Amino acid sequence: MRPLDSIRAVGSQFIQGTPHAHALGMELVSVDANTGTLKVPYREDLVGDPDTGVFAGGVVTALLDQVCGLAVMASMEEFTSTATLDLRIDYMRAAQPGKAVFATAHCYKVTRSVAFVRASAYDADPADPVATAQAAFMLNSNAGRKPGANLKPRTTRPSEDKA
Amino acid sequence: MSENVAKDQLEAVLARIPYARFLGVRAELAGDEMTAILPYAERLIGNPMLPAIHGGVLGAFMEMTALIQVSISEGQARQPRPIDVSIEYLRSGRPQTTFARAEIKRVGRRIANVHVEAWQEARGAPIAFLRGHFAVTPRADAG
Questions:
Q1: What is the pLDDT of residue B119?
Q2: Which end is more exposed in chain A, N or C (fewer Cβ atoms within 10 Å of the end residue's Cβ)?
Q3: Residue numbers in A near B137 (CB within 8 A)
Q4: Confidence check: pLDDT of A144 > 80
Q5: How many domains does chain B have?
Q6: In the prediction, which pLDDT does A84 show?
Q7: In which band, very low, low, confident or very high, does the pLDDT at B11 lie, cut at 50, 70 and 90?
């Protein structure tokens, strides 16, 4: 089964399997071949500036990272581990207090080891974004590392360590 | 600025940000240098297999480090707002405490340019960098 079919089958549970996405209350809105949309409902404990009641920039950062990862996974023929290589975000305006924030990503190019993604976050109208992002992801990022690898002390010298 | 005033100011800035409490961000001051501290919590995980800290969490943490550093070292009438950030990931974030330090490269009347570095067991082996521009609003009384 392609990752896209599995994601469709389990819906938001797929996102909630990521502990941090679950902690932020992220929900799956839609997913298709190489695109996806996620949502974070408004919550007061995620506010960055109590004077304005606006979502913290970091919430949008985490949402954009997650939705880019979703679009990468939806482009894959089989499940692979992914890791963000870089993420660039432009913040156009503050999200409206009290409103959910959505983010849509498009994975537009996949090579053997890297996936390239563009994304934007918005509250009411996708044409009036809160933020836009451009990201690159490493594919098969767990390569050669077994589950729990990060629980063991680092054995290699920092210069030899491959993230 | 005396060290105690700076420390009080730092605590006041942190206490006022609900999202800082959600992440569990703390901070320590050594002179005018602040180290932000993100203690490990299960809810910060992005890859449960390794397990590794969520890339978005590291980005958010470094962004907050930049905001707090600008707020305490440049008197601000309101919280600085991010304009753009560029985050580079060098190593996976392990399930342990993460540290970050921000360096203000330039601050003008409207914009601050800030570089942030995050590390875990060794400062010499950084796990991520952030470079960003932040909109600032200097307080009228700030020099």
A1: 98
A2: N
A3: none
A4: no
A5: 1
A6: 92
A7: confident
Element (H, E) at B61: helix B55-73
Contact B87/A86, CB-based, under 8 Å? yes
* Minimum-distance CB partner of B54 among A20, A86, A142: A20
Say if the Cβ atoms of B52 and A83 lie within 8 Å.
Answer: yes
Q: If you average pLDDT over residues B10-39, what whole number do you get?
A: 90
Answer whether residue B48 is part of any domain.
yes
Q: Burial of B140 by CB count in 10 Å (0-12 exposed, 13-18 middle, 19+ buried)?
A: exposed
Considering only residues A104 and B79, tell me which one the structure prediction assigns the higher pLDDT.
A104
Q: State the Cα–Cα distance between residues B72 and B129, nearest whole angstrom.
A: 21
Q: What is the CATH number of the domain that holds B96?
A: 3.10.129.10
CA–CA dist B4, B131 (Å, integer): 29
Domains in chain A: boundaries: 3-160
**Facing B57 at nearest CB: one of A20, A48, A91:** A20
User: Under CATH, domain A3-160 is a member of which superfamily?
Assistant: Hotdog Thioesterase (3.10.129.10)
The pair of three-digit structure tokens given for residue A111, joined into one six-digit string = 């090579």
